[in-house]
Automatic annotation (TrEMBL):
InterPro entries: NT_sf (IPR043519), Polbeta (IPR041633), TA_antitoxin_MntA (IPR052930). It comes from the Archaea. SUPFAM superfamilies: Nucleotidyltransferase (SSF81301). It comes from candidate division MSBL1 archaeon SCGC-AAA259J03. Residues 2-99 form the Polymerase beta nucleotidyltransferase domain. Pfam families: Polbeta. This is Polymerase beta nucleotidyltransferase domain-containing protein.
Length: 131
């Protein structure tokens, strides 16, 4: 992925990144591909081009067997916002072409989460009312 300038970063997340994995844990990997989303933020021009996520995943699947069950590869921009926040908070960098640019890119996702967090979390009373 290092030679693919569509990919800003490859991140490890989930139980392996938190060092809470066990023998049956899969390895969760997030590919940060700014051009794969309409939620663009210009990061050194990377997000100026529209990227087909299938093209990026096909390149990965040539290297990693998706049927092995060992790796679970995701495009970061396609994940639900609460999972994106988990990736942002608890990740280990496998590769990035621009570490500071990556964190700058994540800023907009953090901002979006702050705007939506109350919609994604329910207080006890709201939960009881919905039952």
């Amino acid at each position: 992925m290092e030679e693919d300038d569509r990919v800003l970063a490859v991140l490890l997340f989930g139980s392996v990144a938190r060092r809470e994995d066990h023998s049956k844990s899969d390895i969760d990997v997030a590919l940060v591909v700014p051009g794969a989303s309409h939620f663009y933020y210009d990061c050194r021009g990377i997000s100026d081009m529209e990227v087909k996520k299938e093209d990026v995943l096909m390149k990965v699947y040539r290297e990693v067997d998706p049927d092995s069950g060992k790796f679970d590869v995701h495009i970061f921009e396609e994940l639900p916002i609460h999972i994106q926040m988990n990736v942002i908070k608890d990740h280990r960098i496998i590769y990035t072409s621009d570490r500071y640019g990556m964190y700058e890119y994540f800023y907009n996702y953090r901002k979006l989460w702050e705007d939506q967090r109350h919609r994604n979390t329910m207080c006890r009373e709201e939960l009881l009312e919905s039952i």
